[in-house]
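Order emerges. One example.
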Amino acid sequence: LIGSLQATRALMVAAILLGLVAVFVAVTGMKCMKCMEDDQVKKMRMAVFGGVIFIIAGLAALVATSWYGNRVARAFYDPFTPVNTRFEFGSALFIGWAAASLAMMGGAFLCCSCPRRETSYPPTRGYPKNAPSTGKDYV
């Protein structure tokens, strides 16, 4: 195979493996999981880290799919390519673009769930409100 086709295959395999790692890292950071439940900040950071890995996996899939799509488009409009051997965009390219978009969007949603920074102010305390007197004050 030519080098560009081998590179697109390698990018897609890397995207799949990164997506699998991102699933495990992001699941560790979910609020409903018992793992790391003693430190919520680290748990949220794990979710954000999983989101970053999802974005990287989506970018790898997007580059691979677009690179192959560019190759197909150039071969289609090349006048020296025989008519019976011309490729067109198939469903696999559209599925690849959709998968890359969904992976990047999901990673962005996970990254938006980052923990808020703690302020240096002490936490506010709620003071009890005085209940209206009913006339029967018990001691």
